[in-house]
Amino acid sequence: MPEKEHLTPLSAILSPQDGKGINKKYIEIILEEEIPVFCLNKNSKKERLMPFRSLYGSYSINFWLQSSEWDYYLTEDYFEKLKEKAIEKTGAWEFYEPEQKKTSAVKPGTPEEEPEEHQSEEVAAYGNEYSSFAKMPTEKKVDWLNKNKQRLNELIAKKNKEIEAVVEVLVDTTKDAALINHTVLAEAIQLGDDEAKKLTQDIVDSTHEMVKSSAQLLSEDIFNNDLMKTLVEKSNGTIVQHMTRVYLNGVAFLAYYNNLVTTSSAIQKLRISFVAKYRPFYHRLLPHINIDDVVLERVFLGGMRSIAPEIFFKWAVGFLIHDIGKASAIQYHEGEAAYIRSTVVEHVKTGYKSIMTKTNYPMEASLITGYHHEYYGSSDGYGYFRANLNQYKKSYPDAKQDYCITYDLEPILDYQALAYFPAKVLEIIDVFDSVTDPNRVYRKALSSKEALEMIRTEFVEKHRKIDIILFDIFDSFIREKEKLN
Question: What is the Cα–Cα distance from 454 to 465, expressed in whole angstroms?
Answer without folding.
Answer: 13
